[in-house]
Design brief:
Layout (H helix, E strand, L loop, with lengths): L3 E6 L3 H19 L3 E5 L4 H13 L5 E5 L1 H11 L6 E5 L5 H6 L6 H14 L2 E9 L2 E3 L2 E5 H11 L7 H12 L4 E7 L5 E5 L1 E5 L21 E6 L4 H13 L8 E6 L1 E5 L4 E4 L2 E5 L2 E13 L1
Helix pairs in contact: 1-5, 2-3, 6-7
Length: 295
């Protein structure tokens, strides 16, 4: 393995933690004898082009510094290649790092962990989900939660995370069951009504909401959580249980396992790793061992 390592940095992650975290991470890698090159794009498109160029040039590893959005961007560059991914998790949610047992919001410790893994050649083969040509590591969300995202992204006030609280209240007021068409693997297409459907390669989204609580990153299967038609009162009862991972015992919740799932519904957007993918219908497939993760 080459000693040239690429730091892939989001300077705005975690209110500036991304830029600050790059320094101790780079220090740990250089102290271990690696040559470190930093990539910071002008925007997401430019950053991805630069990351792919580094991978194509034979970098020894791509190390994403930021939150789940930065990890998601890095996946588009390294998935399906022999280039391993390191993660310095300093974002708001950090669900991918949590799912893989990596240090969270401790860039010095994460940098040392990446350096040790590179020196020892320790990698873990991890499954990824794929929709079209888009890879994801944690959860593909659709339904109530994606509509909250849609509404929040359209709002200009209030600012910050509070706007998503306001968006959730607005979506609760407009809550209606969503008619879905769903197909698992090669089974028949079924028509169901649901409040939301989450397709989990990893277990959590939204900064620790364990929506697909028993999902395993290397079993070749998604855990698909279906929350059936709910009243506002029922949904408010179920949602707090998601943080504890106890919601699958609720009668409105069912969990399915499949390697491929197709979802179709009118006026519903899919979000994967917290990033907008596009409108349904879409088909998600698991790709076993698509990522070499430094652990």
């Amino acid at each position: 393995m080459t000693s040239d390592i690429t730091l892939f940095v989001n300077p705005t992650a975690g209110r500036g933690r991304g830029a600050r975290a790059a320094q101790p991470a780079a220090h740990a890698l250089r102290e271990a004898g690696f040559t470190v090159r930093t990539v910071v794009g002008e925007d997401a498109t430019d950053a991805l082009v630069r990351a792919r160029e580094a991978v194509a040039a034979g970098t020894g590893a791509l190390v994403a510094v930021g939150g789940d959005g930065m990890v998601s961007l890095a996946l588009q560059a390294v998935a399906g290649t022999d280039t391993p991914l390191g993660v310095i998790a300093v974002g708001t949610g950090n669900d991918f790092a949590r799912a893989t047992g990596l240090p969270v919001r401790d860039p010095a410790a994460a940098g040392r962990a990446v350096a040790d893994a590179l020196q020892d050649g320790r990698t873990r083969a991890v499954d990824l989900g794929k929709v079209g040509d888009r890879w994801f590591g944690t959860v593909l969300a659709s339904g109530f939660d994606s509509r909250v995202n849609d509404r929040g992204n359209r709002m200009r006030w209030p600012t910050g995370r509070f706007r998503y609280d306001v968006a959730m209240l607005a979506e609760l007021a407009a809550l209606r069951p969503i008619p879905y068409r769903i197909r698992f693997d090669d089974g028949p297409e079924r028509e169901i009504e649901a409040t939301l459907i989450a397709v989990g390669n990893g277990s959590s989204y939204g900064g620790g909401m364990r929506i697909c609580t028993d999902a395993v990153l290397d079993d070749g299967l998604f855990d698909i959580t279906v929350v059936g038609p709910c009243s506002r009162t029922t949904l408010l009862t179920v949602f707090p249980r998601v943080y504890r991972g106890t919601h699958p015992s609720h009668p409105k919740v069912t969990v399915h396992r499949a390697a491929r799932v197709r979802l179709a519904a009118a006026d519903v957007t899919g979000y994967a790793d917290g990033e907008r993918i596009g409108p349904l219908p879409m088909t998600a497939v698991t790709v076993p061992g698509a990522l070499r993760l430094l652990v």
